[in-house]
Amino acid sequence: MSAQPLPHRDHTPADEDRLRRELEHAYREHTGLWGWLTTVDHKSIGKRYIVTAIIFFILGGLNAALMRLQLSRPENNLVGPDLYNQLFTVHGTTMMFLFAVPVMNAMGIYFVPLMVGARNIAYPRLNAFGYWVYLIGGLLLYAGLFTNTGPDTGWFSYVPLAGPEFSPGKRVDIFAQTVTFTEIAALVAAVEIIVTIFKHRAPGMTLGRMPLFVWAQLVTSFMILFAMPWVATASIMLAMDRLIATHFFNPAEGGDTLLWQHLFWFFGHPEVYIIFVPALGMVSQIVTAFTRREIFGYPVMVLSLIMTGFLGFGLWVHHMFATGVPQMAQSFFTAASMMIAIPSGVQIFCWIATIWAGRPRFSVAFLFVLGFVVLFIIGGFTGVMIASVPFDRQAHDTYFIVAHLHYVLIGGAVAPLFGAFYYWFPKLTGRLLSEKLGRWHFALFFIGVNLTFFPMHQLGLDGMTRRVYTYLAGTGWGDLNLLASIGAVTIAASVGVFLINVIRSAARGLRAGDNPWEAETLEWATSSPPPSYNFPYIPVVQSRSPLWNRPPDIPVVTGLRTDMREVLITTLLDARPDSRHRHPNASITPLLTAVATGVTFIMLIFTPWGLPVGGALLTVACVVWGWPNRKEYEEQKLQESS
Amino acid sequence: MTAVRPALDASTLPTTTFSHRSLAWWGTVGFMAIEGTTLFIAVVAYFYLRRNFAAWPPEHILRPDLFWPTVQVILLLASLVPVVLADRAAYRIDVPRLRRWLLVALGFEIVAVVIRWQEFLALNVRWDTNAYGSVVWTLVGFHTTLLLVDVLETAVLLGILYSKRRLERHISDATDVTFYWYFLVATWIPLYVIVYLSPRFM
Amino acid sequence: WATFRRRQPGEVTDSPGRERSLRFSVLGATALTIVILFAFLIADLATGRAITAGPGQDALQIRVTGHQWWWEVHYRDSLPQNWVTTANEIHVPVGRPVVFELRSADVIHSLWAPNLSGKRDLIPGDETSLWFQADTPGVYRGQCAEFCGHQHAKMAFLVIAEHPDSFARWLDRQRDTSRTPTHPLARRGQEVFLASPCVMCHAIAGTPAGSRVGPDLTHLASRRTIAAGTLPNTRENLAGWILDPQGIKPGALMPPVRLGSDDLQALLAYLETLE
Ligand code: HEA
Ligand code: HEA
Ligand code: CUA
Ligand SMILES: [Cu+2]
Q: Which residues from A are below 8 Å from B27, CB to CB?
């Protein structure tokens, strides 16, 4: 069978049918369980990534619910310190490493290829590998918690508390390896997303025509590339201190406890923007679609995203003011922390201008954006307050910080994410989420978040330190804590409504059609849910809003092979067609390689033999990965001969 | 579906590309960025920990030996010759030459791994002696991991190039392996200066 | 969904005038943000400067060492026999700056008395310091602010700011070693103490007990709380603590000690003499 370049004439419906059939065949995955284990389709993997992250969100939320139950009364005896410390550590670790970062990556994995008009993500097998490694990391953490071996030293696990002397046992090892797994997953996702954006864009989609969500994912991926290695290195050093008696963090042998803090926060601060920046991209897409006009100040928006990405690396010491930072450094980090309010502010102003000048449609996705604006401004303002050293020396390590971090994380990332779920759910499933339940979800969520976290500002100012499993009755903190706990129940109820909405709408929701919101970006050009090959024809993009400025006959690319997964590679800046590349077929190797990685790191917790055993397994995995099997060989041969 | 109009014909585009036009190259650059950052972090840790010691290396610890590390640097520089030649052969799609020079390069790489063993011994300290020992072992160890990865990659690729499964794509992949080797040599020179020379001269 | 009003998407484009007014608003808001931030920054730096001004010459030096989960407080003097060690209670004179040398015996802690000063970490292998001056006499509650393990929640302390004279008297009293009790029950209590595991961890000046694993008990009875601000220092609480520290502070580094009730009563009587 040889490739039929599409004839250069107008396409008839019959042509299209044939094209679809052939692509269907080329992009077919295995069926059943085997198909599930071997798929390399970015949509299948993206979807399961999102679902897994939401499950971890619920687990992390259940930890929080238990914590709130314990704290609802002074001197409560429901949860002792040993369990409480595991709960807040696992809560923080889950929310940061297993929910927030992965879910943002997952949205990128699912939507970036669709939004740039690609057939799949770059390095599809690596993508599958990343998911499995992430899953193994998450399972490890919860296997720990359920066997009473959950980490208990906080999500930033300061040494020496987390070192071998003060935390014997396996708890912190589980923390260190969970972090390592999730960092590997995030790093490979970042590389895939960058290369997808750089080399897989539809022709004509110059950098200046990319949707803002794609820009946000690009900035985030670069931040991941340069931030995650810091925590990965730190966690490896910690694991080595604990397992093979190195002395990185042991002051008795010349090690340094503050080294850990610098390494962690040099990652940790960018981390919060790694969570926040993709959310900004989501907000921009939703605002555009629901005000039905192009975003005001697109170049400024792009610049703000990039600036946030850069400045994010210059703030880490503001988490360490209480350690006694020299005056000069204090001023520098305070100033830098305040500077970063500027790009955030600029974006907020541009959205407001867009909404002002547009014709907003108050659907649920848009409501979540409005909720985001309110919550994030509150959290941003407290952020600027604690950037000031004299204030932070009071607020640091109190519930004021807990309030700040939840306002920015929940307001700045979770609210836009919920908005994005309402916005993109139809693309994922072909059905709309119920607006009626959605409004309940939003109302409960907005009230619950404020009820839970607003009183925490006051608690912090009253002197309630964070990470305490109980407090004395004489402190008078009982009432506000009870209020916060009631708020947590309200948030849980809102999440419950959301889950019901998802389950009901997935089965019985209104059919969506290709473009229910009449939005402007390419993911809405294909059917809902998209076919395995995403687009029958790769479109040629001519503007920033391709579906709004649609000419009567859409220019498309022809001549790509349809008997295999051939994709179009374009140039970096202006997306001119440059070459053709064959993407791999379904394969079990990613899973096997992930298992080999898992065995290596988990075995290392128990014995140094993990190194040779893991090394051998990984070697085998790499050989299998690199060696073309017969089908691949034949397809590639065919491609190269055409 | 709206009407479509064929506007661009992709069928004439090449399938094998080199350097920044090839996807494998971008992957390699991505991982170099990650690994380069990791090595940089270890260097930061080295200088950070150094502030805690009055003497460097700490008292009662011998300075690192120079013999094997210096031999290693010379050999690494020499290894660039076959690597460059392999690279050129690949760009010219000259498979026999590519195979030959890549094989020589692999030989150099394996020798580098063997010498690396001596370099660990030349540190004159154990990783669990003190923080100095921990950080120099880690610096050399990280680089060794990358070295092993490259040996494995080169070997697998050579295997493919000699096998019947050879494709044009693998010729392009070979240039990424050589590219990676440049990276390893380029990162080792500063590490050599920091780990082996700086305790003597700084 | 049927109520969804149909509008041409992307139809909204701005007239040049509109565009200009939008741009003006956004620029204005941004400029305002920058101005506010600058004002805030300057205020911050000024406050920071004021706070970090030095404590001056006549400052009192106190060394505080953090332990899991209590505070060792140490007053130095030119004469070593005048050194004073106590726990969980920091007496300071009002109107005079106090400099704290902060150390840690194990993990990172953070000294924080909210109404007197900001917090400062106690970092193993690294000496940090903090100074403040109390102007109003009173009892101020403080708390460890950096998470330090199981009983981080119950690692509190009291700062007792008093008139310089009464501070001097207090310090003087603390310099005394304990006297052998006169009351027979208390005397027996001392024997119980010295024969029990207590001596492995606690010091009482004037007796052979000299271990520094736990808080110094020489002047225990003069303190207001026990177990780092967890309980008021009463006889019942003391008894409860000695019999079952793990019930009160689960994970605390003091094991429960088995004592017959006679021995316990004697021990309590003795501890109460440690003024
Ligand atoms: C999504 C996550 C996110 C985001 C976006 C931010 C945003 C900011 N954060 Fe926050 N932060 C966290 C997550 C986040 N943070 C977390 C998780 C922690 C705690 C970690 C831990 O200890 O566990 C933390 C802790 C933290 C600290 C350390 C506190 C301590 O431990 O003592 C500091 C100190 O400077 C800080 C500052 C800031 C600042 C200045 C911003 C700024 O970027 C905010 C800028 C935004 C605005 C200001 C609002 C919008 C702007 C306008 C409407 C313009 C007008 C504004 C002005 C005129 C001011 N954050
Ligand atoms: C994205 C990040 C994120 C999110 C979303 C949350 C969400 C929540 N957080 Fe969390 N939090 C952190 C990140 C986050 N947190 C971090 C980083 C820390 C610091 C940790 C540390 O100190 O190390 C922290 C710490 C922290 C503390 C301080 C603990 C302490 O210092 O002692 C508290 C206390 O109240 C808290 C509460 C909550 C609550 C009530 C929610 C709620 O919003 C959660 C709401 C969700 C649910 C309640 C789940 C819903 C479940 C259902 C509806 C059940 C249905 C189930 C089935 C049908 C099976 N969090
Ligand atoms: Cu000591 Cu917290
Ligand atoms: Cu920060």
A: 122-123, 126, 191, 195
Asked if C29's CB is within 8 angstroms of A345's CB, the reply is yes
Contact between A465 and C150 using a beta-carbon 8 Å cutoff: no
Q: Residue B8's closest CA among A205, A584, A195, A636?
A: A205
Give Cα separations from C40 to A57, A325, A334 (angstroms).
37, 20, 10
Helix (H) or strand (E) holding B60: none
Taking the C-alpha atoms of residue B24 and residue C86, their distance in angstroms, rounded to an integer, is: 67
Report CA A302 to chain centroid distance, whole Å.
19
Verify cis geometry, omega within 30 degrees of 0, for the bond prior to B57: yes
d(CA C113, CA C159): 8
A256-290 confidence digits (pLDDT tens): 999 999 999 999 999 999 999 999 999 999 999 99
Q: How far is the CA of A109 from the centre of ligand 1 (A)?
A: 27
Alpha carbons within 13 angstroms on the beta-carbon side of residue C265 total 5
pLDDT digit string (tens) for C168-177?
Answer: 999 999 988 8
**SS3 (DSSP) at B65:** coil
Q: In this complex, is the C-beta atom of A33 within 8 Å of any C-beta atom belonging to chain C? A: no
**Is residue C168 within 8 Å of C174, Cβ to Cβ?**
no
| Bridge partners of residue C101, in order along the sequence | C63, C129
Mean local confidence (pLDDT), A353-373: 92
Distance between B95 CA and the closest CA of chain A, angstroms:
16
Ligand 2 neighbourhood includes A410 CB (under 6 angstroms): yes
Amino acid identity, position A571:
T
Round to whole Å and give the CA distance between C167 and C161. 8
Query: Cis before residue C97, ω within 30 degrees of 0?
Result: no
Phi and psi torsions of A427, nearest 5°: -70, -40
- Which tokens go with C270? 């003795």
| Nearby residues of A39 by Cβ (< 8 Å), 6 or more positions away | A29, A30, A45, A128, A586
Interface test with C, best of A349, A435, A439 (most C CBs within 10 A): A349
List b or e across A243-257, with b for residues whose CB sees 16 or more CB atoms inside 10 angstroms.
beebbbbbbebbbbb
**What pLDDT score was predicted for residue A10?**
60
For residue A611, give the nearest of A300, A287, A239, A302 by alpha carbon: A239
How crowded is residue A479: how many other Cβ atoms within 10 Å of its Cβ?
Answer: 10
Q: Which amino acid is at A258?
A: L
Q: Which residue has the tokens 């004839």?
A: A7
Q: How confident is the model at residue C2 (pLDDT cuts 50, 70, 90)?
A: very low
The answer to whether the beta carbons of residues C145 and A397 sit under 8 Å apart is yes
Report phi then psi at A566, rounded to 5. -90, 130
> Sign of the CA dihedral A157, A78, A451, A421?
positive
Residue C24 has what pLDDT?
Answer: 83
Q: Is-contact C84 C163, C-beta < 8 A?
A: no
Give me the DSSP letters along chain C. -TTPPP--TT-----HHHHHHHHHHHHHHHHHHHHHHHHHHHHHHHHHHHHHS---TTPEEEEEEEETTEEEEEE--SSGGG-EEEESEEEEETTS-EEEEEEESSS-EEEE-TTT---EEEBTTB-EEEEE---S-EEEEEEE-S--STTGGG-EEEEEEE-HHHHHHHHHHHHSPPPPPSSHHHHHHHHHHHHSGGGGT-B-TTSS-B--SS---TTGGG-SEETTTTEE--HHHHHHHHH-HHHHSTT-S-------HHHHHHHHHHHHT--
Can you tell me the distance from the alpha carbon of C49 to that of C159, in angstroms, rounded to the nearest whole number?
25
**DSSP secondary structure code for residue A465 in this structure:** B
Using an 8 Å Cβ cutoff, are A385 and A395 in contact? yes
Q: What ipTM was assigned to the predicted interfaces of this complex? A: 0.94
The Cα A44–Cα A27 span in angstroms is: 12
Q: What is the pLDDT of residues A414-469, one digit of tens each?
A: 999 999 999 999 999 999 999 999 999 999 999 999 999 999 999 999 999 999 99
Cis peptide before C69 (omega within 30 of 0): yes
